[in-house]
Amino acid sequence: MEAAEEAPLVALPQSPELSSGPGDISPCDLTILHFNDVYDVDPSPEEPVGGAARFATAVKKFDFLNPLLIFSGDCLNPSVLSTITKGKHMIPILNELGVHFAVFGNHEFDFGVDILEEYMKQMHFTWFLSNVYDRFTSEPLGHGTVKKIIHWNNIKIGLMGLVEEDWLDTLATVNKSNVNYKDYVEVANEIAIELREEGADLVIAMTHMKWGNDTRLAQRAEGINLILGGHDHDYGIRKVNETWIVKSGSDFKTLTKIDIRLFGASFQYVFEKVDILSYLEEDSHIKAIVKDFTQNIQYMLEEVLCPIDMELDGREITVRRSESNLGNLITNAMLEATRADVALLNSGTLRSDRIHPVGNFTLHDLLAVLPIVDPVLVVRVTGAQLLEALENGVYKYPALDGRFPQVAGIQFGFDPDAEPGHRIIRDTVKVQGQYLQKKKIYLLAIKEYIANGKDGYSMLKSCPRMFDTETAQVLSTVVMNHFESIKILQGRKKCLSGHRMSLITTTSKSPSLTAFEEESNKPSSIIAVPGIEGRICHISQDMKEHLHQLRTERKQGLTTFPTISDNTSENSDSD
CA–CA separation, 145 vs 486, rounded Å? Predict the structure, then answer.
């Protein structure tokens, strides 16, 4: 894909004082209200405070203009409330706002295609997706609409919905091999011609992709008047060639009012940025919807995610000093969701500080373990950087420090008595069953917190990211999807869309995940909780001497090495 040149942002008028009638508004042929990427329904402390209830007040003040309300994707996740409701609270909110048309964002798929399609039946508006097709059904993914012509204020408007290929790689609940992606420029040109032939006066592309791709679309596609975009959270308006691109911020804090006047065969556009400020009253209907969901949180927290057949050890004394089955469970889920080579989680993430008993593991239990909305990123690291990260992880051992790593896709041994910074025994480090190579590039799944160099992981701060935070899955959602996959494999839940099983098709060869692959046709054998697998080991003095001897012999032609589960090593779980 060629990089697009960035067009300058267009300066906009300040947020207008919202009137309640037509007195101060000059006539126009069409008004469009646009917004995108809404996650938190509650207001923030700073202006513009936003919040769904005040946003509704702002939208409804323009009702006398008969506006077309368009949403450019991302509403079901991520937020704390979305983790609890699986985004269901957004259904009545968007319905009450009066959304007319929308394009799918990547986070619409966070809880799976089945749930998305179930929600769509309850939504009073049409979702679009024009350039991604489901290989199972040969229909657009999520059964989105490809194109549509509507009549609004005597103007024939053609609509399409386009997304970029990049975020398909990040969908935890959809395997890219199960969809057919078509380049958005090619599809846009085809659909624009069809819409014009069908009599469209105005052609609008609703998109959910980055500025660079929207710019490329405007440069390469013909016949599109407006690109109403999402995915980026920064507000901006640009004109590229004869096409306007609009991005309207995020989190119900801003919307864009677009007044369109028809002059013969051409249009004139007037854009206004509307900030959702604290002086606006909260809409009573939206406020009641939010209150209803928040009052029922305790009931929703009792949802059983998965029965577990062994205790999960989340005690600080365990997770901050040794391998734990809770850490193995969560890092396994990270590997599944990201398809990385290695997953590394700082143990300070795990907050429950208790043993979770055998029985039903609930949403309340999960949020006790993972109370923070943590995006999971994938970065490119060298083997040398990965070694440095492991050294940092055990640097403060035996202190109960949050940097201690829980891992998947990798196993290593360390000498707790060695000088900090020199504790990892290199000859014990294996990635996906193969000895680590310092110059090789690996894909590492980590939290954004670690990617930003926190907890001493400064060596990861400059590592190239495979995708950005706006595209990332939230860690708690990743674990929820892991449990959903297990229930499907155990035969306790049906997958109507076929897009859940792909979660288990992972390249990881850690024992518990390999068991998924080998036993996928034996539902009763699938277990929810991995055991202690020797991913992290304390290396004894005898073992170090043995490894040193083998290293010397290797230089003379020896090519085999002992595994780190050798009887002379000490598994960290016993510590």
Answer: 31
Full domain range(s) for residue 475 = 304-574
Q: Is residue 462 part of a domain?
A: yes
User: For the chain, how many structural domains are there in total?
Assistant: 2
Angle at 526 between CA 524 and CA 528, to 5 degrees: 125
List pLDDT tens digits, range 24-82.
445 799 999 999 999 999 999 999 999 999 999 999 999 999 999 999 999 999 999 99
Per-residue model confidence (pLDDT) at position 20: 43
Same domain assignment for residues 236 and 349: no
Q: Which amino acid is at 351?
A: R
The C-alpha angle 301, 111, 329, rounded to 5 degrees, equals 70
Q: Where are the beta strands (DSSP E) in 264-338?
A: 266-275, 304-308, 312-313
Q: How far is CA 43 from the centre of its chain?
A: 22
Alpha carbon distance 413, 391 (integer Å): 11
Of 226, 387, 276, 289, nearest in space to 88 by CA = 289
Q: Residues 370-412: pLDDT tens digits?
A: 999 999 999 999 999 999 999 999 999 999 999 999 999 999 9
Tell me the C-alpha distance between 107 and 413, whole Å.
38
269 and 371 assigned to the same domain: no
Distance CA 273, CA 271 (A): 7
Q: Is 6 a member of any domain?
A: no
Average pLDDT over residues 453-459: 98
In a domain, 5, yes or no: no
What are the angstrom distances between the C-alpha of 231 and each of 88, 167, 174, 471? 20, 10, 18, 8
- Whether 14 shows a pLDDT value over 60: the answer reads no
Q: Is residue 502 part of a domain?
A: yes
Point out the domain boundary residue: 297, 314, 329: 297
What would the two tokens of residue 437 be?
């190579």
Q: Give kind and range of the element (H or E) at residue 424.
A: strand 424-431
Task: Give the end of a domain, one of 297, 315, 340.
Answer: 297
Same domain, 47 and 144: yes
How many CB atoms within 10 Å of residue 42?
Answer: 16
- On the question of pLDDT at 4 being above 70, the answer is no
Beta-strand (E) ranges in 189-252?
Answer: 202-208, 226-230, 235-240, 243-248
Q: Are residues 283 and 308 in the same domain?
A: no
Q: Are 377 and 313 contained in the same domain?
A: yes
Give the span between the Cα atoms of 493 and 485, in whole angstroms: 9
CB 141 within 8 A of CB 106: no
Whether residues 293 and 408 share a domain: the answer is no
Q: Are residues 227 and 335 in the same domain?
A: no
423 secondary structure, DSSP code: -
Q: Are residues 269 and 396 in the same domain?
A: no
Tokens of 505: 């098709």
* H helices present in 66-210, as ranges: 80-85, 90-97, 113-120, 184-197
Q: How far is CA 277 from CA 63, 215, 252, 491, in A?
A: 19, 30, 10, 50
